[in-house]
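Repro:
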Amino acid sequence: MTEIFGVSTQALLGQLVLGLVNGSFYALLSLGLAVIFGMLNIINFAHGAFYMIGAVMTWMALNYFGISYWWSLALVPLVVGVVAVVIERALLQWLYKLDPLYGLLLTFGLALIFEGVFRNAYGVSGLPYSIPEQFSEPLNLGFMLLPKYRAWVILVSLVVCFATWFLIEKTRLGATLRAATENAKLTQAFGINVPLLVMLTYGFGIALAAFAGVLAAPTKQISPLMGSNLIIGVFAVVVIGGMGSILGAIVTGLALGVIEGLTRVFYPEASATVVFIIMALVLLVRPAGLFGKRES
């Protein structure tokens, strides 16, 4: 068996795949954050809570209603997105013209409420959710056995991320969204319903978080703390990629997941902090982030 710097190739490739899986979750979550901040200028600290809600609702759908994983993959993001639309209309719409700090404080409070409700209902020990039967057998790649579900997570995350990027950056709807955020009054003068666009944008960004939660349900321990344990790292990814940058969130999320996985192989002690070390270095060199726009 070949070795690289004293580490077997099989172990290295295994951590690389695990890094891609974690990077897929980073990319999906940071993408939702980037959409909400870039379009609405809201720092959504409740994003991790909605990710947790997506995972918990997937468990509830199976155990209370017999709804399978595949239906949950479509229904749970839709339901959570509708809840987010109600929150946006009831609370967030009054904060758009204020300092972003007010939005951060409100969403932080919402995160604490959601986490407390689910902690009282289910505790913190974790809820089990089995991998769908279609992914029970691993893929034999010759040099390693790759669990099919991990391959599925990587594939579907890439498809969703780049479809979202294409929608926002390359379509007429995306151009209208960007115009509405840059000059709402002028856009509304052309007969475009800007409040509706804003509402749907927030719902879509939260639905992405819930979608990541559904994907995470069979691979991670479902608990009320799963969102708060991940959200700080996701914020670091968004800062590195550039606040509001869609492509930056995707590329940086995937890259940092891989870097984190490789760090576990070569220097495990730094695996929990490598993302924040990179964030500090990037901010020193380019405060706007790798893909962010510099202030004129």
